[in-house]
Here is the input.
Amino acid sequence: SLTKIENVQNGPATEWLKTRLESIGQQSRGVVVDLTNFVMFDTGQPLHAFDADKVEGQIHVGRSVEGEKVTILGGKEIALATGTLVIRDDKDILAIAGVKGGVKAEVTSATKNIYLESANFNQAQVRRTARSLNLLNDSSKRFEQGLTPERFLSGRKTYLYFLQKEQSEEKVYDTV
Here is the structure.
């Protein structure tokens, strides 16, 4: 599922959120990305946020073609095997599905509008891709283990709940 969220304030996360992420060894990167990480560790559902203003056209899942490359978050360029499952817009690859986001639609402190992706990718496909590219991470490991089909909805719901709290003046948290 892809959810467009407009007019976000991607500043520093509240101390509440930073403390929880730091307690599990995660570095704070701003509220939009921090919440994707928090929700993944809380619910088990990997999420990804794309800067909607950097996306050209529509976002869709597809397969890479021969010779395609993507620059992943962190700046490393990756040559993809033909047929790698990717998320792309009408011009470029945005992410390696279930494995790693790309820099093209990277969320920054200037991000104002996002697409929140909450999906369930084939566990064998993610395992093969992550291992062949040596890109093992918390997200790919969760997809490898398999997720219930309904989990992507609860992950999105949890993210939206906490984003609303982070963006409001009232920073009081209760349980979802």
About this structure: Confidence is low (pLDDT under 50) at residues 171-176. The two ends are 20 Å apart (CA to CA). The longest helix spans residues 151-167.
